[in-house]
């Protein structure tokens, strides 16, 4: 008998019918003789809906109250899933993160799990219950509700698996594994049977939202066996592990879309200091008064710098991940420019090559980089893969 932690994302619990089907999958795991602890996201679209409500009250909502609001989505789905299991005659109990003992720091909206007091979960598991824990939430040491950043239910699941010493952490989502790039944007992507923690971490960090970046780091640090699977179909999914059997060459292309290039009428030195302190400035070009920030920072930044802002445009980052991609910068940039894609900037880090382009060129650029550099079924020989952000 094994202890399995399963996580179901928003689309997987997006309707009553989907929740019923998730409960069947959980029951089938239990019938194979396993204990099951489940982490669940809010129903698809719910966290965005709550965010919109908050923005109707304030352009820049107060972080503590925002977490109080956003965490509500997960409380609905855990209860519905428990009700569905109960209705099918299965013992199940839902727990908020507070009840489940998930302690975080107090960085509202982007908290980090510090430890989990697993006693209550273990007691229920020992009594034969399926324990369903609200993903994405935590509590700080003063009892305030925190949230773990968008996509944070993945991290809840991995942290639970680590704390409970589970045999496997299974992330069920709306695709049947990790692909060489986002299969919804890029043609001819390939599902990876296995991928290393380090490559997956680079992909996630560069925008492949199939796994939240922190969840991969946590699994890597705690040696959690992590697998991405479809909640819609059966299959082996993708195993994220230390030493995959495949995984030489270019592994994937990650895409990050929500960036803004903000051009200003000059900065004072103290304004630059403030920018660096307050906002996640990804790039600054002081010579031409340009900064690149995540879209999420914009409303706050607009309030502080409105009179300075001259122009705003959307950018995307495409990141190729894999062996020797550092040496492919000239070739990648030439390919893109030959296809009329303007490059704002490119950068190289160990095992990753990022290219920043206008948002409007993203799909074309992704297609070009993926088919030229990434390993696909058709081009296994050249051992290449791309990730787009
Ligand atoms: P969930 O709600 O289940 O957490 P997400 O929307 O957060 O699901 O993550 C799944 C999505 O991640 C997929 O629908 C896909 O569009 C996107 N994605 C981005 N990059 C990849 C990739 N390399 N492989 C698979 N999916 C990816
Ligand atoms: N519901 C949260 C979000 O939409 C957390 C998650 O889905 O993992 O970001
Ligand atoms: Mg997700």
Automatic annotation (TrEMBL):
Endpoints of the signal sequence: none
Keywords noted in UniProt: Amino-acid biosynthesis, ATP-binding, Kinase, Lysine biosynthesis, Nucleotide-binding, Transferase
Any single Gene Ontology cellular-component annotation: cytosol
Source organism, top-level taxon: Bacteria
UniProt protein name: Aspartokinase
Matching NCBIfam families: asp_kinases, PRK06635.1-4, PRK08841.1
UniProt domain Aspartate/glutamate/uridylate kinase: residue ranges: 3-228
Entry's EC annotation: 2.7.2.4
Annotated positions binding substrate: 47, 74
Family: Belongs to the aspartokinase family.
Chain positions recorded as ATP binding sites: 7-10, 173-174, 179, 184, 209-210
GO MF, any single term: ATP binding
GO biological process: homoserine biosynthetic process; lysine biosynthetic process via diaminopimelate; threonine biosynthetic process
The keyword Endoplasmic reticulum is annotated on this UniProt entry: no
Pathway note: Amino-acid biosynthesis; L-threonine biosynthesis; L-threonine from L-aspartate: step 1/5; Amino-acid biosynthesis; L-methionine biosynthesis via de novo pathway; L-homoserine from L-aspartate: step 1/3; Amino-acid biosynthesis; L-lysine biosynthesis via DAP pathway; (S)-tetrahydrodipicolinate from L-aspartate: step 1/4
Catalytic activity: L-aspartate + ATP = 4-phospho-L-aspartate + ADP
């Amino acid at each position: 008998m094994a202890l399995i932690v399963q996580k179901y994302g928003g689309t997987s619990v997006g309707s009553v019918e989907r929740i019923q089907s998730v409960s069947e999958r959980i029951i089938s795991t239990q019938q194979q003789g396993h204990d099951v602890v489940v982490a669940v996201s809010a129903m698809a679209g719910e966290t965005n809906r709550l965010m919109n409500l908050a923005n109707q009250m304030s352009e820049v909502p107060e972080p503590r109250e925002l977490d109080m609001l956003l965490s509500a989505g997960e409380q609905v789905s855990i209860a519905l899933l428990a009700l569905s299991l109960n209705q099918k005659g299965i013992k199940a109990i839902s727990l908020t993160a507070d009840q489940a003992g998930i302690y975080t720091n107090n960085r509202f909206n982007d908290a980090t799990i510090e430890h989990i007091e697993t006693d209550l979960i273990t007691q229920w598991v020992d009594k034969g219950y399926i324990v369903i824990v609200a993903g994405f939430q935590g509590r700080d040491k003063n009892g305030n509700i925190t949230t773990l950043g968008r996509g944070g239910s993945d991290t809840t699941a991995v942290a639970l698996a680590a704390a409970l010493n589970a045999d496997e952490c299974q992330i069920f989502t709306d695709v049947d594994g990790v692909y060489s790039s986002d299969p919804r944007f890029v043609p001819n992507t390939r599902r990876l049977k296995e991928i290393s923690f380090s490559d997956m971490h680079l992909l996630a960090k560069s925008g492949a939202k199939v796994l939240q970046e922190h969840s991969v780091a946590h699994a890597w640090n705690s040696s959690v066996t992590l697998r991405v699977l479809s909640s819609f179909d059966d299959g082996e999914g993708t195993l994220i592990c230390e030493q995959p059997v495949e995984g030489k060459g270019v592994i994937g292309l990650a895409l990050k879309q929500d960036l803004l290039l903000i051009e200003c009428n000059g900065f004072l030195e103290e304004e630059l200091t403030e920018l660096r302190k307050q906002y996640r400035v990804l790039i600054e070009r002081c010579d031409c008064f340009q900064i690149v920030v995540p879209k999420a920072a914009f409303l706050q930044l607009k309030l502080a710098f409105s009179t300075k802002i001259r122009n705003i445009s959307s950018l995307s980052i495409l990141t190729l991940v894999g062996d020797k991609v550092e040496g492919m910068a000239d070739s990648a940039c030439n390919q893109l420019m030959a296809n009329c894609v303007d490059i704002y900037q490119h950068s190289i880090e160990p095992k990753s090559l990022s290219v920043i382009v206008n948002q409007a060129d993203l799909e074309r650029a992704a297609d070009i980089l993926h088919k030229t550099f990434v390993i696909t079924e058709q081009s296994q020989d050249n051992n290449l893969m791309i990730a787009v952000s």
